[in-house]
Design goal:
Blueprint lengths: L2 H17 L17 E5 L6 H16 L3 E4 L7 H13 L4 E4 L8 H9 L3 E5 L10 E6 L1 H16 L3 E7 L5 H16 L6 E8 L4 H14 L5 E4 L2 H13 L5 E4 L3 H4 L14 E3 L2 H16 L10 E4 L4 E4 L1 E2 L5 E6 L2 E3 L4 H4 L4
Parallel strand pairs: 1-2, 1-3, 3-4, 4-5, 5-14, 6-7, 6-8, 8-9
Antiparallel strand pairs: 10-15, 11-12, 13-14
Helix pairs in contact: 2-10, 3-4, 5-6, 7-8
Bound molecules: alpha-L-rhamnopyranose.
């Protein structure tokens, strides 16, 4: 390779790494030195769900006098998040809240952050227990799995083939829900006539999620239900099924604002009903956790409590299934033809 090409490649790599995290740092007004800086690292950019989380996080931190740094990775991978977190460590932020693209791959960089005195917590998709102080969990894993299994069973009419369109193959949250669904279906005879034929990964990218849905429909002509436990996947699958007027129906976890056009009864709609929680509130909960950690009100141990004023709740930190701790926002909520109009304008 000529020196010119190598130099050019180096420039491209440098330009990319500067742009890598899409960090929005508030302007430093040179004022109050005691003002704390709270970072949030979502799973990926361009996903409205992640933007809602960030919206809630910002609202609470800023209302309480803190600064927010939003650091979006360039893609939904652990490597892209490591680049973001390294940059946040060198910016000496006070806290990092991360929605992990991989449970284990962020351990080294988050350990470094904690050793530098930065408070580290998770939201939405957990890093492993050694990489965090605690975690804002949207809803109990078993509760989400139960809701999805029962929806698949009902929509399939009690029997037949079903498939999953997930996010990325390493996503902690989707994998936990999928594993819990498999366990539940294996443990209860009422699911015995359902057959999970495939699990596909759309990587929380609309185009890839569309492609894998189309492939599922052509590979499994008898497919009765697709379950997409990702807001990006379900929106892409909903469009494919509805456009094709497919007999295969859909459920999963979706944003009401993106799914309203697909939720309804009968042949014209691809999704009879689906579930989610409030992603804005999840961001708010994560903000309260981050502030309580930075202010020394909690350490992340089970049994500690803190007040989330705006949510009107005093939360208790509890033991999580992975051996670490978590704070559970609430229960999964069902979006049906009856309530979708009301919710689509909220998130
Ligand atoms: C997508 C993301 C997110 C998940 C939701 C349900 O937006 O994968 O992590 O919680 O779906």
């Amino acid at each position: 390779m000529s020196k010119k090409i190598i130099a050019l490649l180096l420039c491209v790599v440098m330009a990319l790494s500067i742009a890598a995290c899409g960090t929005t740092t508030p302007t430093d007004d040179g004022g109050d030195d005691a003002q704390k800086t709270y970072a949030i690292v979502p799973k990926s950019a361009g996903n409205p769900y992640n933007e809602k989380e960030v919206e809630g996080f910002k609202e609470i931190i800023e209302a309480n006098g803190g600064k927010v740094v939003v650091s979006y990775p360039t893609e939904a991978t652990a490597d892209a998040q490591i680049t973001c977190i390294n940059s946040l460590i060198s910016q000496h932020v006070d806290s990092i809240a991360v929605a992990a693209n991989d449970a284990n791959a962020l351990q080294a960089v988050l350990t470094e952050a904690m050793q530098a005195g930065i408070k580290v917590s998770g939201l939405d998709s957990a890093v492993n227990k050694d990489s965090r102080q605690t975690f804002a969990q949207q809803a109990g894993i078993k509760e989400v799995a139960q809701a999805l299994c029962d929806a698949v069973l009902e929509i399939a009419g009690g029997e037949g083939q079903w498939a999953i369109v997930s996010a990325s193959s390493q996503a902690t949250n989707q994998n936990a829900w999928i594993d819990a669904m498999k366990d539940l279906m294996a443990s209860d005879d009422k699911y015995a006539k359902l057959e999970l034929v495939d699990v596909q990964y759309g990587d929380d990218e609309p185009i890839k999620s569309t492609t894998v849905t189309q492939a599922l429909l052509s590979n499994y002509p008898d497919l009765k239900v697709i379950c997409a436990p990702t807001t990006v996947g379900i929106a892409a699958a909903a469009k494919v099924l509805q456009d094709q007027k497919s007999a295969c129906k859909l459920t999963g976890l979706g944003l009401p604002s993106e799914m309203a056009a697909y939720i309804g009864e009968g042949d014209d709609f691809s999704c009879p009903y689906m579930f989610l929680w409030n992603p804005i509130d999840l961001g708010k909960l994560s903000a309260y956790i981050s502030m309580a950690l930075v202010e020394g009100k909690i350490t992340g141990a089970a049994g500690e409590t803190f007040e989330a004023k705006d949510l009107g709740v005093t939360y208790t930190i509890v033991d999580a299934a992975d051996g670490g701790t978590e704070v559970i926002l609430g229960q999964p909520f069902a979006f049906t033809p009856d309530n979708i109009e009301e919710w689509k304008v909220i998130y």
